[in-house]
Design brief:
Shape: globular
Strand content: 5-15%
Order of helices and strands: EEHHHHHHHH
Oligomer: single chain
CATH class: Mainly Alpha
């Protein structure tokens, strides 16, 4: 077990169960990206207009805490490494997920706000470096913005859909007592 410390106002103990849960969330993140890539296509995950469904897992940091923060960070690292655009994407994409999940974790008492604000780090960080890889040709709605700002706006909107809408719906569904109590009875820890 890792020595306990204070994170976000709670005492944190990270044991082998947490490490396993982190691995599960990391694997889920990669699997969802692979399934989306094969069923819809890579541009929806690794293009200038991203709708990365796996980002809905970020919202679960409000329920399961640091294992989700680590899992979605690791999952993003692996996904971006497999679909390699460049070192910037591997490092900064993972950093964006780390920042987004940390925001959700720290603001977990206000779940909808946490999910809403969690979409912004992804849009700002990923949107800032994607112009290195893609020439932005957005619809006219973004035509008045400089390319980097247009890319950021595009990624913020898609992150809002995945983290705030899909993620919050998933978080709400898993937080219902009928779903959560059986998970807790099998030793799953929550940070509610």
């Amino acid at each position: 077990m890792i020595n306990p410390g204070k994170v976000g106002g709670i005492c944190v103990k990270f044991d082998s169960r947490d490490l396993a849960l982190m691995g599960v969330f990391g694997a889920l993140y990669v699997i969802i990206n692979v399934v989306q890539s094969f069923s819809v296509g890579n541009p929806t995950i690794y293009g200038p207009v991203q709708l990365r469904v796996a980002d809905c897992l970020i919202a679960l940091a409000a329920l399961f805490g640091l294992p989700v923060v680590g899992g979605v960070t690791l999952g993003c690292f692996v996904s971006n490494f497999v679909y390699f655009l460049g070192v910037q994407d591997v490092l900064f994409g993972s950093l964006a997920n780390l920042a987004a999940a940390t925001v959700v974790f720290l603001l977990r008492k206000h779940r909808l706000t946490a999910c809403f604000l969690g979409a912004f780090p992804i849009g700002l960080i990923v949107g800032a470096y994607l112009p290195l890889f893609f020439q932005f040709s957005a619809p006219e709605v973004f035509g008045f913005l400089p390319p980097v700002a247009g890319m950021m706006a595009s990624i913020i909107i898609s992150s809002f859909i995945t983290v705030t809408v899909l993620g919050y719906l998933l978080l709400s569904a898993l937080s219902r007592p009928s779903v959560l109590e059986p998970l807790k009875s099998h030793g799953l820890k929550t940070v509610e």
